[in-house]
Design brief:
globular, binds 2'-deoxycytidine-5'-monophosphate
Length: about 220
């Protein structure tokens, strides 16, 4: 059984997908982590982000894995835990160089599918119901107003990022919405077979309960 949850940044996908996976005893697949981890690798190696041929080659030599631990799912890049390092604003700001390229997406999607082999899973991202797992048994789309999404993201970032302001977060989110929905390669969109939830006025627990009812 595969369940997919797509939606824009800050819609509550990650928390909901993780809780849902735990409640059902399914594996949690954070597809954004693959884009983040490879972006981090390219930044560390110092590859020109516009050099697609080199990025493709680098991706061939890159191993990204999700490993479950007691405190939640951890992200490993070439065997090293990068769970925190992939969440910095610098990484977020560079992801579009990777996420906009079909050839890179294809390879990252392969790795995401491999992560679900032989198990039931809850996958979360921008294209999990449309591209990664088109045959998923249940497909959800979580949404929320941009100000509410910025508020949630701001509260999260306050703990880790010095000097961050709400206005910065709001602007970054609007830019990311634009990139996620308008890119040619697998843009964020809702398919006909998706179930839509507006989470603006709901807690993540309420969303999880609503999804469980549908499942
Ligand atoms: O879910 P997230 O914030 O970790 O995702 C980071 C970026 O990765 C997102 O802005 C676009 C890209 N992404 C994507 O293109 N496709 C996905 N399925 C997941 C993420």
């Amino acid at each position: 059984m595969i369940i997919t949850i797509d939606g824009p940044a800050g819609s509550g996908k990650s928390t909901v997908a993780q809780t849902l996976a735990k409640r059902l005893g399914y594996r949690y697949i954070d597809t954004g982590a693959f884009y983040r981890a490879f972006t981090l690798k390219a930044m560390r190696v110092g590859v020109n982000m516009k050099d697609e041929a080199l990025l493709k080659q680098l991706l061939q030599e890159t191993k990204i894995e999700l490993r479950n631990s007691e405190g939640g799912t951890r992200v490993f890049l070439d065997g090293k835990d990068v769970s925190e390092a992939i969440r910095t604003p610098e990484v977020t700001g560079n992801i579009h160089y990777i996420a906009s390229r079909p050839a890179l997406r294809e390879r990252l999607v392969e790795q995401q599918r491999m992560a679900s082999e032989g198990v039931s899973a809850v996958a979360e991202g921008r294209d999990t119901g449309t591209v990664v797992f088109p045959g998923a048994e249940r497909k959800f789309y979580l949404d929320a107003g941009v100000e509410e999404r910025a508020r949630r993201r701001y509260l999260e970032l306050l703990e880790t990022t010095k000097g961050i302001t709400y206005q910065d977060v709001l602007e970054e989110l609007k830019k990311r919405d634009e990139r996620d929905t308008s890119r040619e390669a697998s843009p964020l969109k809702m398919g006909d077979d998706f179930i839509y939830f507006d989470t603006t006025d709901l807690t993540s627990e309420e969303v999880v309960e609503a999804l469980l009812k549908k499942i």
